[in-house]
Design brief:
alpha/beta; 6-stranded parallel sheet; 11 helices; 10 strands; 43% helix
């Protein structure tokens, strides 16, 4: 039942992924018919989905194309771990659910966070950059690897429209930080968060508040880093203290900076590549775990930008 899904929804996804092979289920027997290569690929897909279930994972319709894609990469000779190993890696268990990487790119991302002091997660919306980093931060706090979590974002419009909004400075900045609060509430009991924030164990603040500080024994996440300037990025990275871990996330294709201002995320990618204990992980539309249409939107937009740059001769 775990394989077939509610109302055979997962089975339908399997049948679609296995075409032109035919997949039939009778009782507890699954049969696959097709040409040798096609049947072998279909059999491997079903076997890998069963392996995920046997290792305590779950399988849904959205997981089927992901597993099929990983197996296809392996058949082309790429050095990739088995999908069951990727999709059953537990990062954090909280509030009745387990946070796990959903794609090969996401696994490489969380492994890089484990292995490096500073990790840059660069990719489009929906690839889990912030969510997975938040899960790693909460897990590090639970395991007493760090003493506090610091979450920060640039408030891009702080010099202009923010001043016209009603309320205190905290109320004006809150909309920029709300996505970080929302992710945090998915990871922890909501009634614990105010107490931890009051004690300083968790801090959610705009990037400007990082200036002049040294952050020791902390897990620090800079979100929406494409909206930093080069100077802000340098300021942030030099806050790193002893026993700290930094994760910087962003999408270089969605910069909201004023015209003519170069993104600090683009700059740092050019300057710091190759430095030891620092990793850049590039996520793509393959790693999107939102609605399948999000991947299509990202790919179509990228193609449109390429055509437009080609016409301009860039």
């Amino acid at each position: 039942m775990g394989l077939l899904g509610r109302a055979d929804s997962t089975l339908q996804a399997i049948e679609q992924a296995c075409q032109p092979a035919d997949v039939h289920v009778r009782g507890d027997v699954i049969s696959v018919r097709g040409a040798p290569g096609v049947a072998d690929a279909a059999t491997a897909l079903v076997s890998e989905l069963l392996a995920i279930l046997e290792r305590g994972g779950t399988v849904g319709p959205s997981d089927v194309p992901t597993v099929a894609s990983m197996l296809a990469q392996a058949r082309t000779g790429q050095d990739t771990p088995p999908p069951a190993q990727v999709l059953t890696q537990s990062i954090l268990s909280s509030r009745g659910k387990t946070v796990r990487p959903k794609t090969l790119g996401q696994k490489r991302y969380v492994d890089a966070i484990d292995q490096h002091t500073i990790t840059f997660g660069i990719g489009p919306a929906g690839t889990g950059k912030t969510y997975l980093a938040m899960a790693k931060a909460v897990r590090a706090l639970q395991d007493k690897q760090v003493n506090r979590i610091i979450l920060t974002r640039p408030a891009v419009e702080a010099g202009e429209r923010l001043g016209f909004l009603p309320g205190t400075l905290g109320e004006k900045i809150d909309p920029y930080l709300r996505p970080l609060h929302d992710a945090l509430q998915d990871m922890m009991e909501p009634d614990h968060i105010p107490r931890l924030m009051e004690a300083g164990t968790i801090e959610v603040a705009p990037l400007a508040y990082m200036r002049g500080r040294t952050l020791n024994d902390a897990f620090i996440i800079l979100d929406e880093a494409q909206n930093t300037t080069a100077e802000q990025m340098k300021m942030f990275l030099t806050r790193l203290g002893f026993g700290a871990t930094m994760v910087v996330t962003g999408d270089v294709t969605q910069t909201d900076l004023p015209g003519g201002v170069t993104s600090g995320l683009r700059t740092v990618r050019e300057i710091l590549r190759g430095i030891d204990d620092l990793a850049f992980v590039e996520l793509t539309s393959r790693d999107v775990v939102r609605h399948r249409l999000v991947s299509y939107v990202i790919e179509a937009w990228a193609e449109h930008d390429l055509r437009r740059r080609g016409k301009r001769g860039d």
